[in-house]
Write a structure and sequence with these properties.
Radius of gyration: 13 Å
Helix content: under 10%
Strand content: over 45%
Distance between the termini: 40 Å
Structural class: mainly beta
Largest sheet: 7 strands, mixed
Length: 123
């Protein structure tokens, strides 16, 4: 069992930065692939970024590539999303997800999900 808790969301002006964190409780954190997703008002949840259990492999959606960086700290059981050059279209609720299966996380079928943190980017 893994519990995920996101933090770090808030209101920021376009062009600014935010750093989201997701703290995990439970055993074997270092075995899980971890991902970030977001859901804008009136839209479906979408994939943002994923990192493998070792941290060696990362993947980003095209809208955030080059602006967002996903990282993990297996010692402290956290995964972070550094968001730079934010745009109004980045607004939404951001969720972290975890699963032992990398491609399940990527597909949005991860076993564990956090409650989300709101990110609002003003123009």
């Amino acid at each position: 069992q893994v519990q995920l808790t996101e933090s770090g969301g808030g209101l920021v002006q376009a062009g600014g930065s935010l750093r989201l964190s997701c703290a995990a409780s439970g055993r074997a954190f270092s075995s899980y692939a971890l991902g970030w997703f977001r859901q804008a008002p009136g839209k479906e949840r979408e994939f943002v970024a994923i990192i493998s259990w070792s941290g060696d492999t990362t993947l980003y959606s095209d809208p955030v590539k080059g602006r967002f960086i996903i990282s993990r700290d297996n010692t402290n059981n956290t995964v972070s999303l550094q968001m730079n050059s934010l745009k109004p279209e980045d607004t939404g609720v951001y969720y972290c997800a975890a699963d032992l299966r990398y491609w399940a996380v990527y597909a949005g079928d991860g076993e564990y999900w956090g409650q989300g943190t709101q990110v609002t980017v003003s123009s």
